[in-house]
Amino acid sequence: MSWNITQYKYKWTLNRLAQGICPDCGGEMDRVGWRCSKCYIELKKNINKRREKLAADGRCIDCGKENDTDNLLCSSCSEEANKRNRSRYQRRKEKGLCVDCKEKLPDDYTHVRCEDCLERANEASRKSERKRRNK
C-alpha cells in the first residue's frame, strides 16, 4: 500500500502523541489534545491574527472569501456554522446535557442549561436589552 503525504503525516502525528511528544515542537505534551500548551497558544495567536486581518479587509474570517454580509462570516460559512450549532444543541439536549457547557443535568430538570449557564445567559440577555433601550 502506498501512502500519500497526508496519511503519513497523520500516522506520524499519532505516533508522536502516543509517545507523549508534541508533533509540532517535539516537547513534552502537558495537555490533552494535538499540541503542547506552548504550541497551542502560538497557534491560537496566529489564528486570531489571521482572523483580525481578514475582518479588517472585509473578508470572511472562516474561508477568507469576499464577505457578502455585514457579519464576520460570509453567508455560506454562517449557514454551515448555524447547522453545526443546531446539531450540537439537539445532541446535547437529547443526552440531557447542558447545551452550553455539557454538564449532566438532573433527570427532573426542566431547562436546557445548567444553573450557571442559565444565569450567564439571562445576564447577557438583560445586558443586551439595556443596551438596546439606551440607543
Walk me through the structure.
With 135 residues, the chain is mostly helical. The protein folds into two domains: 16-56, no CATH class; 75-133, no CATH class. It is built from four helices and no strands. It has helices spanning 5-18, 37-56, 75-94, 115-133. The N and C termini lie far apart (65 Å). The relative contact order is 0.05. The mean pLDDT is 92.
Q: Which class best fits the helix and strand makeup?
A: mainly alpha
**Overall geometry:** extended
**Unreliable stretches covering 5 or more consecutive residues:** none
Gap between N and C termini, in Å? 65 Å
Helix percentage range: 40-55%
Rg (CA only): 21 Å
Mean pLDDT: 92
Count of the separate structural domains? 2
Query: Care to count the β-strands?
Result: 0
Q: How many individual helices?
A: 4
Largest sheet: none
What series of H and E elements makes up the topology?
HHHH
Task: Give the amount of beta strand, in percent.
Answer: under 5%
Give a short summary of the structure.
This protein has helices at 5-18, 37-56, 75-94, 115-133.
Features:
135 residues; mainly alpha; 2 domains; 0% strand
Set out the fold topology.
Layout (H helix, E strand, L loop, with lengths): L4 H14 L18 H20 L18 H20 L20 H19 L2
